[in-house]
């Protein structure tokens, strides 16, 4: 007989140690869309000073409503004095979406020349390049099928600036003609990591490089680089898998005020460390205080 679900479990704060970093975290349950298994990924709400047990809330926690913050259950020996300094959120909530994980993969795409190759092959069509990147990144980060992409874009910022409905996805794929696809493949074969393309050769049938083949090659190039850096650096001692690393980066949100350019929230120390391992520079305004 299965153990009854504790309704308060998603709100119980606990310590999550990742290397030298100590986080105040919860473990909300979620169901894996592929396997149907229920998993409990960590959600970080701030840091915990290991010497004083003082809880230092992060930006995500501070932006919760007073009612939402009141749902959390803290261990009795934690110092919660920092909570007294949190003001009441604005009556009109600031529009935000999750953004850190997709931003992270976009930066990797730039670093490994993937974005440049897409721009060159797709005749400089930046909007189409961002749509192809979104199609490559979405299943990597979520495990969801493409019919859910447009809905996901409402809560998570992706490279594409339009919601990719099934009809728009079809148009984007059709825009990658065989000639454009072959040009992209030629450019990728000139890169130092050209050996990665062997993973995708079976998907390129009859010598014709379709739009979906370009999406597959793009996704493989990104994931192969992530796996390589994760396995060759101290990241492997902190994160058991690249997916755990994506979960950490995902908590960075994008602030999207009407009439203003989108702005990322401040990164924490661990997120900054992840970026440094990949040679990615954190925007100055986003660096930890």
Task: Briefly say what this structure is.
By secondary structure, the protein is α+β, with helices and mostly antiparallel strands. The protein has helices at 59-62, 66-69, 100-111, 114-121, 126-142, 149-153, 166-175, 178-189, 211-232, 235-238, 242-250, 269-277, and strands at residues 14-18, 21-26, 29-31, 38-40, 43-48, 55-57, 96-98, 253-255, 263-264. It is elongated, with a radius of gyration of 21 Å.
Walkthrough of the structure:
The protein is of the alpha+beta class. It contains 12 helices and 9 strands. The strands form 3 sheets. Strands 1-2-5-6 form a 4-stranded antiparallel β-sheet. The mean pLDDT is 86.
Count of beta strands:
9
**How many whole angstroms does the radius of gyration measure?**
21 Å
Major pleated sheet: 4 strands, antiparallel
What is the typical, i.e. mean, pLDDT? 86
Helix and strand pattern = EEEEEEHHEHHHHHHHHHEEH
The SS-based structural class is alpha+beta
CA-CA gap between termini: 49 Å
**How are the strands of the largest sheet arranged?**
1-2-5-6
Beta-strand proportion: 5-15%
Number of DSSP helical runs: 12
Q: What portion of residues is helical? A: 40-55%
Layout of SSEs?
Elements: E1 14-18, E2 21-26, E3 29-31, E4 38-40, E5 43-48, E6 55-57, H1 59-62, H2 66-69, E7 96-98, H3 100-111, H4 114-121, H5 126-142, H6 149-153, H7 166-175, H8 178-189, H9 211-232, H10 235-238, H11 242-250, E8 253-255, E9 263-264, H12 269-277
Antiparallel strand pairs: 1-2, 2-5, 3-4, 5-6, 7-8, 8-9
Helix pairs in contact: 3-5, 3-11, 4-8, 5-7, 5-9, 8-9
